[in-house]
Design brief:
Elements: H1 2-28, E1 32-41, E2 44-52, H2 54-77, H3 84-102, H4 107-125, H5 131-158, H6 177-193, H7 202-205, H8 211-217, H9 223-232, H10 239-261, H11 266-286, H12 290-317, H13 335-349, H14 355-369, H15 374-399, H16 416-440, H17 451-454, H18 456-473, H19 476-481, H20 483-493, H21 498-529, H22 531-550, H23 552-570
Length: 571
């Protein structure tokens, strides 16, 4: 408990200091690059470079603030765990890896933070140590390793410039072939870490981790690392790469919204919601609005962390049950938690004057004003409608209707430490959107739209409410009766079969081929002509030679007698 309080207070203190520094740097348009010589060997210096500008300081302050609240929340949530200190140390290592990634303008030091996130996330996903956790951890680690390979290749390509400080070359060298290749590799690394299509399946699987970890991973660390890296690299990315990113991220946004509308696991619904918002960030980034992407990244971090905390509180009270169909009527027994839950959800939907509204509405209006084509326009608004749909469905299942859990239960708002951890964020969820819009957006966006396009957002939100209600009425019995609805819900709920494609599809054929090779070669011809056959031949030869060695005197005498007989016969 003491170690939790120490880290909670330290992170909170440094978060406040970094936030004030970020505001000062923002007002003065000031950046600071610090080079620290680690050691020098034969005139070769190993230098650690740190970049402090308003973006890195602001993001670091948000990471530290959210992680401080998560650590405080974990004091109650993980109180029954026997290895609490190990859990806290893993979370702290996770946060430090993210901070190292944020403040590094150098690819080598970013790789330390990048791989630190991958390694510690694996340790946290397998924390409960069961078969499901091990499978999820392996899927998470191997998918992220694909991105790490691209990262290592980009480090090799950066040697063309004589330095790994990418920040100096982004704008100047963006027309060179080397920088185009580096940007492509960074794009691959970012979409694996931020779980875009076709690497999306690890994100819901990572829900096997404890809920405080999910709260941290899905708000301000791991999944946002890819978005942050692309925000830094946005100057060097060409138009073609931006178009590919726009298509991939918009499709991910749509797919995650559909998947969440048919999912029944509470944590997986929120995980798919994160995937949808990551698609939104990357798609607006690919349209040139990197400040808007960063703005939504910060705002989203707050309400998504709090959403997972509320979900954790409910799961904690329900004895580990995560199925939303068991959870009706919780609002009567946990009014405070459910109030915070609704605040987060309406912020996610973009209800006017909540923090989510300021970023989402601005993004949608910027897209409407600089409309690229009909596909992008439609997929943006349909995805926004789906966000509202799965949120309304979630609220309907969890808070309304009859209570579907056991007759004997102990569900209440008595976890005061968890509640205080959540109350620390809830005011920021309400007010931080407007505060950040004042300080981050120095010159206001001028948006001139016709009335129909202006009210389009409201219309889509209302349509989303209706669809959400309709989705919540699709009972299991009705879906089984209507087989086409049931099959389509299975297809949409499994993220367009991506989970099967990226695991069974990748594993099945290599394993099957390996098995046939094992039977036909390892235990077949290679055994006959290879190891066993050579062993048998050597054994036979050695036994023959052994006979000669043991009976050499007899053999000499026999040969001598035979020689004498030949002589007598011949002569």
């Amino acid at each position: 408990m003491i170690i939790c309080l120490v880290y909670f207070l330290s992170f909170l203190f440094f978060s406040i200091i970094l936030f004030v520094l970020a505001l000062m740097f923002m007002v003065q348009e000031y950046s600071l690059i610090i080079e620290i010589e680690m050691f020098s060997l034969n005139t070769s210096s190993i230098i650690m470079t740190l970049l402090f500008d308003w973006m890195s300081l602001l993001f670091s302050s948000f990471v530290l603030f959210i992680s401080s609240m998560v650590i405080y929340y974990s004091m109650d949530y993980m109180s029954g765990d026997l290895s609490m200190n190990r859990f806290i140390m893993l979370v702290v290592m996770f946060v430090f890896s993210m901070l190292l990634l944020i403040i590094s303008p150098n690819l080598i030091s970013i790789l330390l933070g990048w791989d630190g996130l991958g390694l510690v996330s694996y340790c946290l996903v397998i924390y409960y140590q069961n078969v499901k956790s091990f499978n999820a951890g392996m899927l998470t680690a191997l998918t992220n390793r694909l991105g790490d390979v691209a990262f290592l290749m980009s480090i090799a390509w950066m040697m063309n410039y004589g330095s790994w400080n990418y920040i100096f070359y982004l704008d100047v060298m963006k027309s060179s072939v080397e920088m185009e290749i580096i940007s492509l590799l960074m794009f691959i690394a970012a979409i694996t870490k931020s779980a875009q299509i076709p690497f999306s399946s690890w994100l819901p699987a990572a829900m096997a981790a404890p809920t405080p970890v999910s709260s941290l991973v899905h708000s301000s660390t791991l999944v946002t690392a890819g978005v942050y890296l692309l925000i830094r690299f946005n100057l060097s990315m060409g138009e073609g790469l931006m178009m590919i990113l726009l298509f991939v991220s918009s499709l991910t946004m749509f797919m995650a919204g559909l998947g969440a509308s048919f999912e029944n696991d509470l944590k997986k619904v929120i995980a798919l919601s994160t995937l949808s918002q990551l698609g939104l960030m990357l798609s607006i980034l690919s349209l040139g609005g990197y400040v808007l992407a960063f703005y939504h990244l910060l705002v989203h971090a707050l309400f998504k962390a709090l959403l997972f905390m509320c979900a954790g509180c409910m799961i904690h009270n329900l004895g580990g049950c995560q199925d939303v169909r068991f959870m009706g009527g919780i609002v009567k027994r946990m009014p405070l938690t459910c109030t915070i839950f609704i605040v987060c959800n309406v912020s996610l939907c973009g209800l006017p004057f909540m923090s989510g509204f300021y970023s989402k509405d601005l993004i949608l209006e910027v897209v409407s004003m600089g409309i690229l084509n009909l596909y992008i326009y439609l997929i943006y608004f349909i995805s926004t409608g789906l966000t509202v749909a799965y949120t309304v469905r979630l609220i309907y299942y969890v808070l309304m209707g009859e209570f579907n859990y056991f007759s004997y239960h102990m569900i209440s708002d008595m976890g005061w430490v968890m509640l205080k951890g959540m109350m620390g964020i809830v005011m920021f969820v309400v007010f931080m959107g407007s505060l950040l819009s004042w300080v981050m957006i120095s010159s206001p966006y001028f948006i001139c739209l016709p009335f129909i396009m202006k009210v389009m957002t409201v219309m889509v939100v209302l349509m989303g409410v209706w669809f959400g209600y309709e989705f919540s009425q699709l009972t299991y019995e009705y879906m089984v009766k209507s087989m086409s609805v049931y099959k389509s819900s299975l297809f949409l709920g499994s993220m367009w079969n991506m989970v099967y494609i990226s695991t069974f599809g990748v594993n099945y054929y290599p394993l099957k081929m390996g098995g046939s090779i094992y039977y036909s070669l390892d235990q077949g011809w290679s055994e006959f002509f290879g190891a066993q056959n050579i062993y048998m031949n050597i054994s036979i030869c050695s036994s023959v030679f052994q006979i000669f060695h043991k009976n050499n005197l007899k053999i000499f005498l026999v040969l001598m007698v035979m020689w004498l007989i030949v002589l007598m016969v011949m002569f």
